[in-house]
Design brief:
This protein is an alpha+beta fold. Helix content is about 60%, strand content about 10%. Helix 3 packs across helix 6 and helix 13 packs antiparallel against helix 14. The N terminus and C terminus are likely disordered.
């Protein structure tokens, strides 16, 4: 009976006073950088990302050893419970935010921590085999339990923050979609009314004067073209959302620019506009639908508002990767033209929904949706969209998108002759 009481008292001390736990924790701290490298490699192989993009900054990469320090502390002393206010949990939440920005899904995060748990248990198994100090089975089981609990708490912190951000994004998109649908429905309804009205008059008055007939036919055609343009923009926007839902369909920037130019080639040629692409584009991978939507809308606007009085009409596309004030990097893409420009009193409203700076120019068609869609799409990716107005005339429309890691120094040469529309 005395021996049984002794064992019970000893078992109650295992959770706090365990020599094996201290040794395992120390070995874990000493090997944390090697374990970080193993985890990084496993994640990168799983999500098809370059290892530099899994943890795109040194600060974020430093999170992992800190997480492992937290695991080691808990393994050594379970009284040091990993609580919601501890730095290790804060780091785990920051990792959840990063994964949200990178487009990971919940399954990939769970798999990420499955890798971590496997790596740590394998490390502990090897370490136990090397330890010569005596230990009881209960001590070994207690250490394994603490390890499992520590990884689980960190995983839950990452996942919880990730899901909160995901829910917030879904709510914001649903609200934008409802507002967008209301406006689009109103616009198309008005266009349909104009088409029906003009076509009704045409059908009821067969001997209408030729000039009046042409006027009504033009009303039908103009409104039909505007509805087509509206539908095209909605389809582009839906493709962007679809790509986001699928997480990744990236494309290299030079290729994206060439594709945008190809889509407006005929319109540019008809307007006598030469489209010039900077022959040295940064070789950067970006979201395909975002670039296609933004550059195509900017190019279409530049073609639409070209200056017919000028002998030479051109559009220039350039891009650069540059550091921000916070030390991170972004890519800035500019579309410059020598068109009619934007009146000074109209500039601040350019990116508002259905706003047209040249409303009085009836020969120029447009719904005023393009720039607003560009801004909302780019901002949904953490970027910016704006316009510049050079003193020499014309306009510059730009977007900036964040880069998740420092860009390579290399550039991609584009054959200019193959990219011109004129």
């Amino acid at each position: 009976m005395a021996d049984q009481n002794h064992r019970t008292r000893k078992a109650s001390k295992v959770e706090i006073d365990c020599p094996l736990a201290a040794i395992l924790a120390e070995r874990l701290r000493a090997g944390k950088h090697e374990l970080t490298e193993q985890w990084l490699t496993r994640i990168a192989s799983r999500v098809s990302l370059d290892p530099n993009r899994v943890f795109p900054t040194d600060d974020l990469l430093d999170h992992v050893p800190l997480l492992l320090d937290g695991v080691a502390d808990y393994v050594q002393n379970p009284a040091a419970e990993i609580g919601v206010h501890m730095p290790v949990v804060a780091k785990a939440m920051e990792l959840g935010e990063l994964r949200h920005q990178q487009g990971f899904d919940a399954y990939e995060i769970l798999k990420e921590y499955e890798f971590l748990g496997g790596i740590l248990f394998e490390f502990f198994t090897r370490t136990v085999d090397e330890i010569t100090e005596p230990c009881e089975k209960s001590e070994l089981m207690a250490c394994g339990s603490r390890l499992y609990r520590a990884v689980t708490i960190i995983q839950q912190s990452t996942m919880t923050h990730f899901l909160l951000l995901a829910d917030k994004r879904v709510a914001e998109r649903e609200e934008r979609l409802r507002a967008f649908n209301r406006v689009i429905s109103h616009e198309i309804k008005n266009r349909i009314a104009a088409v029906l009205g003009a076509s009704g008059v045409l059908s009821e008055i067969p001997d209408m004067p030729a000039e009046k007939n042409r006027e009504l036919v033009e009303i039908v055609l103009r409104n039909a073209r505007e509805m087509q343009s509206t539908v095209d923009n909605v389809l582009l926007l839906s493709r962007t959302d679809l790509d986001d839902a699928r997480q990744h369909r990236n494309i290299m920037l030079p290729k994206a620019v060439r594709e945008a130019v190809r889509q407006v080639r005929e319109a540019a040629h008809s307007a006598g506009i030469e489209v010039r692409i900077d022959p040295l584009m940064p070789d950067i991978e970006l979201r395909a639908a975002v670039i296609e939507l933004s550059i195509k809308n900017y190019l279409s606007n530049a073609i639409k508002y070209c200056d017919p009085a000028k002998q030479e009409r051109f559009i220039e596309i350039s891009a650069e990767a540059t550091p921000t004030s916070t030390g991170e990097y972004e890519v800035i893409i500019r579309v410059r033209d020598n068109g009619i420009g934007v009146p000074a009193d109209k500039r601040e409203h350019l990116f508002e929904r259905f706003y047209r700076a040249h409303e009085g120019m009836t020969a120029i068609e447009g719904t005023g949706l393009g720039l607003n869609i560009v801004r909302e799409t780019v901002e949904s990716q953490g970027g910016r969209a704006w316009a510049e107005h050079p003193a020499e005339g014309g306009s510059v429309f730009a977007i900036a998108l964040p880069l998740r890691r420092k860009p390579d120094t290399g550039t991609h040469r584009i054959e200019t002759a193959d990219s011109l529309s004129h």
